Automatic annotation (TrEMBL):
Occurrences of domain RimM N-terminal (ranges): 9-88
Pfam families, alphabetized: PRC_RimM (PF24986), RimM (PF01782)
Protein name, as recorded: Ribosome maturation factor RimM
Gene: rimM
Family indicated by similarity: Belongs to the RimM family.
Top-rank taxon, per record: Bacteria
The record's note on its domains: The PRC barrel domain binds ribosomal protein uS19.
UniProt GO BP: ribosomal small subunit biogenesis; rRNA processing
UniProt subunit comment: Binds ribosomal protein uS19.
NCBIfam families for this protein: 16S_RimM (TIGR02273)
UniProt keywords, alphabetically: Chaperone, Cytoplasm, Ribosome biogenesis, rRNA processing
Subcellular location: Cytoplasm
Amino acid sequence: MADTVEVIVGIVGRAHGIRGDVGIELRTDEPERRFAPGSRLRIEGSGRSLTVTSTRDHSGRLLVRFDECPDRTAAELLRGAVLVVDVDADERPGDEEEFYDRQLTGLRVFDAADAEVGSVADVIHLPGQDLLEIQTPTGKRLVPFVRAIVPKVDLTARLVQLADVPGLLVDEIDSD
């Protein structure tokens, strides 16, 4: 059996209506997969699991109904619950140029001259683009996660290689 990892897919928000629907603050790029009817999600830190009955979009917000949540009162009790699933540790997104945060965190980072300069501490998601937070010997640096700057990600070798971009990992550029 393959190794699995627990990943957070959403946080339950406020109840919507009287039938037990809840808004979900998504923590996955694949809501159609993770919240498909019949999917089983666990509430982090508890022995409870929930079965997705239905989902729908409501003004850009995902509303979910669970079998175990028959009315608004039950839905209100779920507010703030962190929803998790176990996924195959080797699972990749459908696009070969995409990665899960858990796959990038901890990778060693090399500059264009093949010198190790740090490791990926975190992935930060912004509206315009994602950033890699690189822990270097002199502190954390943010690097735009775009092909022109990060041309190589090798999950097998557990490394990321940066392009030759002057000043990329320094606090300031000397103007002299």
